[in-house]
Amino acid sequence: MFRLFLRSVVTLIGSALIGSLVVFLLLRLLSGDVATIILGKGATPEALAALRDELGLNRSWPQQYFDWLFGLVRGDLGKSYAAQYDIFHEIWSRLGLTFSLSVGTLLLSAIVALAAGIYSALHARDWRGGLIDVIAQLGLAIPTFWAALLLIGLVSVRLGWLPAGGYVPWSEDPVGAIRSLILPILALSIPMISLLARYVRSSMLEVTNEDYIRTAMAKGYTRPRAVVLHGTRNASIQLLTVATLQFGTLIAGTVVIENIFALPGLGKMLIEAVGNREAVVVQSLVFVVMLMILVLNFIMDISYGLLDPRIRHSSAGGAHG
Questions:
Q1: Using one digit for the tens of pLDDT, what is the confidence trace for 79-108?
Q2: Residues near 282 by beta carbon (within 8 Å), at least 6 away in sequence
Q3: In contact, 190 and 144? CB cutoff 8 Å
Q4: Which residue of 7, 90, 290, 317 shows the fewest CB atoms closer than 10 Å?
Q5: What value does the CA radius of gyration of the chain take, rounded to a whole number of Å?
Q6: What is the pTM of this model?
Q7: What would the pLDDT profile of 26-68 be if each residue is shown by its tens digit?
Q8: Distances 151 to 103, 183, 235 between C-alpha atoms, Å
């Protein structure tokens, strides 16, 4: 397990360094002069020169890259040109909200999808399994923004149970924070649950024909109990894989949801930065989102080892070989 952990840490650090270099170079190679992006083509040469000097764009690219990289470590990414906020502080203050939204959606989706997928597989030959399939198909067809509007109309406007927008920080009122996140998480979870439930159902249908399920039933287990006790672990691995791969799509969904519910997260900050052509802010935000995805993949690798002993042993064997 230690070798798997060590290999995953090295992969995480290497991927983060390569990713930071790609983000830095792409902005300059494809977009050209960062000062021109911010001020526009109509800016005077004097204004462009002053901005380059202010943002340190007169230095060589290697020097700019390492200054930006070490600035991430030190917590110093400079100031926004248009809004004049401290970039690192602004990202840090919004990260908790986006993290709560994303992780809350993943957890809720995984739990509901696992239960729905198992139930659908156990009743694959009757109307109950068919009903779950129909609901899953509908869930996949509903766009996230439309689900958000429907939830606001029903739960907030008609029933008055939850706020239609805004955010209460966890430090001020934990109950208020949960209430402000319920509808956004539900809107993001609908397509995610539908997708994951179909994967779980497919995985569980394969498991029900395995020898060890028949062996468990021969020992006196009922079919549902044998499938749940011995098949859930195998289904969990596939569920974990698909959920992690969907994290990038989930982050893209949070950009829309944060704007609909007026949540001050990274997605809303990204939209504002793109609108203001804040190239330096966008560069740092893209890297932070990339880091979130890499960290989640790191957690997925470790979870594989915990769920499946064969992966732990193959990692140890590969290291010896």
A1: 887 778 899 999 998 988 988 898 899 899
A2: 27, 270, 273, 274
A3: yes
A4: 317
A5: 24
A6: 0.81
A7: 877 766 677 777 777 778 888 888 878 877 778 888 998 898 8
A8: 20, 7, 31
Residue with tokens 């995985």, as numbered in its chain = 203
Cβ pair 256, 144 in contact under 8 A: yes
Q: Are 146 and 155 in contact (CB under 8 A)?
A: no
Residue 115 phi/psi, 5-degree rounding, is -65, -45
Helices and strands (H, E) in the chain, number of each type: 14, 0
Query: What is the C-alpha separation between 152 and 170, in angstroms, rounded?
Result: 22
d(CA 117, CA 198): 6
Termini Cα distance of the chain: 16
d(CA 196, CA 285): 28
DSSP string, 112-175: HHHHHHHHHHHTTTSHHHHHHHHHHHHHHHS-HHHHHHHHIIIIIIIS--S-SS----TTT-HH
Question: Which of 82, 75, 32, 28 has its CA nearest to residue 54?
Answer: 82
Structure tokens that stand for 262 in this block? 């007026």
